[in-house]
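Bug #2210: token dump truncated for Tetratricopeptide repeat protein?
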Amino acid sequence: MRKYLIISLLASYSIVFAGESEDFKAVDNLYKERNFKTALTESEKFLQKYPESKHQKSMRDKVAKIYFLEKNYKKAEELFKKLFTMEEKQSQKEEYASYLARANALLNNSNSAMFYLREIKDEKTFQKTFFAVAQDFLAKENNEAAKKAYTEIINNKYENYKESMMGLGIVYYNLKDYDKAIYWLSEFSKAMPNENKEMVSYLRASAIYRKGSTDEAIKYFEELANMTPASEYSRKAALYLIEIYSNRKDEAKVRFYLEKLKGTKEYNTAMTMIGDLYVTKENYEKALDYYNQSNDKNNPKLIYGEAYSLYKKGKYEEALKKFQSLKNSDYYNQSIYHIFAINYKLKNFDEIIRNREIIRKVVVSQVDTDNIIRIIANSAYQVGNYKLAKDYYGRLFAVSPDKENLFRVILLDSQMLDMEDLRIRFNQYNELYSNDTEFKKDVYLYTGDAYYKAGDPERAEQIYKTYLNQYTNTEVISSLMSTLLEQKKYDEMEQYLSLAQDESSVNYLKGIAAMGLGKYDEAEADFQKVLASGDQSLSTKVYLNRVRNYFLAERYNEAVQAGEQYLSKITPDKEKAIYSEMLDKIGLSYFRLGKYDQARSYYSKIASMKGYEVYGKFQIADSYYNEKNYEKAASLYKEVYNNYGETFYGEQAYYKYIMTLSLTGNTDAFEREKDNFMKVYPNSNLRGTITNLTTNMYIESGDTDKAIESLNNSSSNTDDVAVKETNTTKIITLKLQKKDYKDIEKYIAELPTEEERAYYLAQYYAAKKDPKAVKEYEALLQYDKYKAYASKGLGDYYFDKKDLAKAKKYYGTYATVNKNPDEYILYRLGQANEKENNLKMALTDYKAVYSKNGKLANDAMLKAAEIYDKQENVAEAEKLFTKLYAVKNNKELKAYSMEKLIYYKLVKNNTKEAKKLYDELRKLDAKRAEKFKAYF
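Reproduced locally. Full output below:
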């Protein structure tokens, strides 16, 4: 029995070893055949299947090297690390150290890369690897690490030290240290005069140009650009020369170098580049002229430049179409603000409100987010949807707290008589903006009026009197009169009425009242009556209120004119508050007109007044911020914070300074200053805003994991339901974009409404191609907001399932919901009708598509032409094929269209035209033309 057992065990072991050996040979053969993709998969299986195999090390070695070759450096690093630790043979260990040094360099792990490099004792291997590591650092834009590596190689005159001079030159170029870049590139040229001559010349010329020595750079660029034959670097040099001569307005030279680029891809680049240059100079007509000369009409960068130029020229409809056409490009996010702004200018308020949710689904800068929210809020206000307007003004204040945003919320609370929220916001205003003069009168007036309307005249009275303890204002007095009359406090009424008994005061108060009611022309007429009366006691107040009136009416030029006229009539020392507000209103008017230099001249005067220094300096910084001169703005914000950190504007300045760091992509400084802000202002209302800013910065940099982490932190640190909801929606959107479905259902379940949950579940299931999406689409059909989205989803689902009746039903629903259906839907309807042989309807659908002149226009026109052809409707078919024949850059379509047209011409015995087309077709596609040879 024991004998049989031993024989049995030996047999089983033989089978195991035979299986392992055969598997190893099979994998090894895959490597020999260079079938690396399959080899990698089979190697991984082998390692799992035979963990104790003698081939484990050999197989790991192969797998690690394949991962390295396939640029999966993380996986390669993990495997080489194990091999390095296990290996005892020094030469093999050093080979693994070499791979580890390079893998870590390519993963931007500088310290680890250098650690493994120093583990290499063989001098030749060490020097060869060192240069490769330096090159890898450079390739991954790890310029500081590359600089250290190249410098050590050069100083020690290791192998490739001459080539390292060029690398070091490129590093210094990347670091914008152009003098050192020029030096090392020149040293490389001396050391290796026949190597990379054109590239080095180009880089050296670029560095000279970047350091501001334009005339010197021109010589080198021209030498390159005029080389024969032209090369990649000569064309790049020509592009630089076009930029330089465009800036110098030397049109002859621009034309000369453009001529050299004709017929190359750089020609289109040049057209776009010159167009962009003219945009920066605000010469939008010239910009459009150059954009139009490019043949690369579908280039999103060019389309964006065209759209922006049209927008600045006031051609809003054209601009809108172009911005909207960027939907599936990288430029769509930065187009979103302009789409909203144009719709607002065109008074498409309903359209704005309809598309408001897009802000949750796209990633835009914080500045654009704030502006879009403001546009949505203003649109809702314009159409009388105060609840929605308040919601968006509230969001705006939560993200970008300032007195104007808070004032808007208070205004809407007062109109909606939301007394609990009004109480909170009014207290908030007094805590945050106790020194405010711009909105104070209106805040107190609207809040008091709301309490009066809500049946609480006593509280209204308190609010009016609190204001009147500091200021005298006819509107506030008038409202106070109403509350006193309600409470029959006649003695007190007399006391306040005595403030305005003469005719001039009455006219003045009438003017104030009219201004408060937005009757600006009426107010101006009343103020003019006071001035005509010659009452000097009111003249200064009238001066200021005329400027206020123009400012409120958004007649900024007149506000400036009146303000500058009256400034000399006001005594700054005696009438400091009025004088400072006059300066402020003039400055703000220039600011609103985009005349920042003039605005700054007035803010500088405010900054020189005792007690107003911080406000003036903050406004100067803000003007540079609005001008998008973030470097200058950052410097001034920091100065305000350093000198006035304990004040409201000091805190605001620090926050805005942090914003500039975000906008300029200075991540390290942003993280440092953000953390410091939280320590300096532990109770700041801006903490949540900074958290949002952090999130947006991570989103814009593409680090979605950190963005999600930041959004989760934001939700954990707030009780605001709206903020939590917005954060959750953004997390879901980011996960969908990244195809990271972990925990996504948990986040979707946190959404407050069934409507939103169904919408995001539909997206999630659709992304996974899960049929459960159908159920969610069907649920969404009951909601107007998502009916179009759901209809399209269902239409696509049933179309793919070849259930054309249902597909048409849902596409039809989409077309009903959208007055201007998407061309994709119409095209799908055409396809469905054509498959059902409902050719008449199919033609109607295809015509609707190509009439839009969109991306599917040619496809739809071809479909329609083929239907006419089948119906032997030669006249209509010929019309469409003639149009298709004229389509540029589509050889196949042109040849096919010509084939059809030749046939039609022959049918009509028009041999002359047929021959012309035949000759052209022979040149384009001789094989197609062959079938017509017998006719000619």
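Output looks complete on our side. The mean pLDDT is 85. Marking as cannot-reproduce; reopen if the truncation happens again.
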